[in-house]
Inverse folding.
């Protein structure tokens, strides 16, 4: 029996007050148009919320104002809201009779980077992050997720005569540093609050709006953080023979480590190492005594991960040996595991989403970014994580055919989703996904 079916039957056994009845299949076409009407009438408010959150982003574990905005929206809708779960997280619960508990997650956090979109609602916010001042921007689209999350809650409340069960809407902090899901779990997410039977989350990507991509099984990568400190001997830039140059070591490592990917790893398996930050030195004529590199390692499979980690460590040590330097300090911090979508949840939602979106709902290969939504899955919530597009279909087609510019992806300073069509798709897809599971449950009773 699939985990989905087992959970469904277990949750059905607890529900006795609804009459046993054979139910017809969901009328998806009718439902989708009801959802679209609902979003259309709510849209001015969702648009204002989206642009406000976009213009005032907050970084991991600092999302206090963002969380307060969402809390206010959810209270207005009649959800019971608890704030400060896992630092800045939010849990909003809405009970509507007997049925499964379905979790819908959004993230709250933005990125430490400068937005360069030039949009009228672009962020100019700054904060202190790891001891330095930095710009903050919603360049991953978590603001779209929040607007879609509120829109889905509004729509499900409006349609509450069409489903029975409990909604558990959660807003997690610090997804970008893959720490917020763990923080919420450690703060009693599934003990202080009911543990959901099923869960859903979505993420935007740089493809056409109106399109929903999904997959069964592996949906995202394992992530590990890399920290290397190359230690040398500082001195005058004009007297290099008296120094051991850690800038040289860093440069050599950044290039050589890619041979672990290209020469050691099986080329048919996924694995990436990227160095995202090099911190060292102060002036042109001073050789510093140390340089720190920060990077990320992404894989799908455990054996590929082990091979990559070993190769990275060996390369760093070899680079130091070449310079006659002390051993580098190497720290690999286990980040988050791959998201594995539940086949039962996916097949239930698939039927409804296919009927609603036609060929704009389609399977895709796993994404190489990572996602700490995997923490909720690993804590026992069978789930579906899917992606929605953000750009005009014509621009996407032109970029693909080489007839137009490449479109900025997530984490680009130019990432600029088209708000209305993207949020509408997010609300419609998420509402239908949630209702498909409530419906499946009701029909199995
Ligand atoms: Zn991101
Ligand atoms: Zn993201």
């Amino acid at each position: 029996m699939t985990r989905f079916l087992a959970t469904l039957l277990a949750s059905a056994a607890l529900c006795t007050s609804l009459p046993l009845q054979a139910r017809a299949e969901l009328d998806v076409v009718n439902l989708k148009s009801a959802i679209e009407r609902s979003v259309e009438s709510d849209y001015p408010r969702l648009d204002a919320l989206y642009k406000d959150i976009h213009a005032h982003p907050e970084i991991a574990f600092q999302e206090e104002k963002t969380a307060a905005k969402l809390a206010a929206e959810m209270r207005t809708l009649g959800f019971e809201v608890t704030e400060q779960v896992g630092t800045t997280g939010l849990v909003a619960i809405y009970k509507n009779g007997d049925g499964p508990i379905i979790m819908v997650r959004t993230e709250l956090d933005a990125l430490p980077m400068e937005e360069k979109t030039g949009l009228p609602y672009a962020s100019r916010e700054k904060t202190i992050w790891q001891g330095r001042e930095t710009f903050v921007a919603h360049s991953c689209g978590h603001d779209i997720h929040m607007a879609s999350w509120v829109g889905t809650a509004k729509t499900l409340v409006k349609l509450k005569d069409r489903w029975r069960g409990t909604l558990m809407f959660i807003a997690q902090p610090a997804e970008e540093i893959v720490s917020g899901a763990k923080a919420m779990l450690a703060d009693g997410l599934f003990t202080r609050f009911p543990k959901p039977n099923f869960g859903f989350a979505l993420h935007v990507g740089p493809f056409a709006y109106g399109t929903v991509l999904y997959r069964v099984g592996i949906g995202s990568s394992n992530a590990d953080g890399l920290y290397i400190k190359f230690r040398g001997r500082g001195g005058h830039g004009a007297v290099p023979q008296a120094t051991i140059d850690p800038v040289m070591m860093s440069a050599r490592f950044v290039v050589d480590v890619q041979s672990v990917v290209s020469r050691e790893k099986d080329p048919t398996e996924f694995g990436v190492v990227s160095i995202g930050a090099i911190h060292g030195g102060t002036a042109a004529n001073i050789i510093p005594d140390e340089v720190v590199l920060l990077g990320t390692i992404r894989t799908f499979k455990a054996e590929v991960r082990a091979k990559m980690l070993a190769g990275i460590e060996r390369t760093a040590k070899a680079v130091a040996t070449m310079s006659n330097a002390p051993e580098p300090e190497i720290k690999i911090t286990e980040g988050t595991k791959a998201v594995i979508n539940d086949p039962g949840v996916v097949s239930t939602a698939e039927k409804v989403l296919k009927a609603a979106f036609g060929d704009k709902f389609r399977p895709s290969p796993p994404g190489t970014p990572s996602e700490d939504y995997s923490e909720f899955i690993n804590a026992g919530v069978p789930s579906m994580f899917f992606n929605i597009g953000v750009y005009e279909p014509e621009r996407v087609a032109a970029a693909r055919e080489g007839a137009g510019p490449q479109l900025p992806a997530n984490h680009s300073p130019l990432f600029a989703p088209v708000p209305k069509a993207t949020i509408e798709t997010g609300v419609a897809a998420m509402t239908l996904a949630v209702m498909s599971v409530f419906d499946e449950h009701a029909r199995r009773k």
